[in-house]
Design brief:
rod-shaped; 8 helices; mainly alpha
Length: 244
Amino acid sequence: MMASTSETGHAKNIANFSELVTRTNAFGAAYNPAKTALQQAQLETQLQAAQSGLTALATAKAIYADMVDKREAIYGPLPKLITRTLNLFRSSVSNKAQIDTAQHLADLMRGFMSKKPAAKSPDPADPTAKSISTSRQSYDSIYENMEQFIEVLAANPAYAPNEAEFSVNSLRALLAEMKAINDSADTIETVLDGARGLRNTQLYANESGLVDTALAVKQYVKGVFTKENVQCKAISKLAFKRVQ
């Protein structure tokens, strides 16, 4: 999957800052700003922190993507399984109220899944980010409806299919897998949100963020060195943008 413009923009800001730090170092003792945040050692520390933050976010995204695949492997086959189970239930019992309840719960689950819950969180500056909260609510709703669906089946002793995959015990085992992957998703999404928030703070916090630091360095260099200076020329061309 290709990286989005926003993803590229975050990485580009860090790459340009890395070049900025290299070029300020090339000035030697002539680069001597009074402001501590602009001094060479501080720039190198800020660069290392931003690079580590971006790596941590990439790792969190990879773990999240793996979780999405695992959750799809569990939830993806559910619509067909629910339909077949409902047909077996209808063929086995005569209690219309129970059949109607099972039908209603099945319709709710199949309705949610036909809409394909979004797997990512709302962040216009991040492609992994398309509605994690909505996704969480949808999968939790499917789980809750599945739990009730199984209890309706279990409440009628006439439902005792010979096919193991449709048995109450098998369905409860599946329910446990659904709960486990939902819990795992909650944990991973929290880590991902934290990593994304740290990235945004490191790069875009007012005054202390990497972008504002870079712009301040450019102003300092412009004031101290002539525009004919090779390093000054190169630094003036480095672009830093607020992507979030």
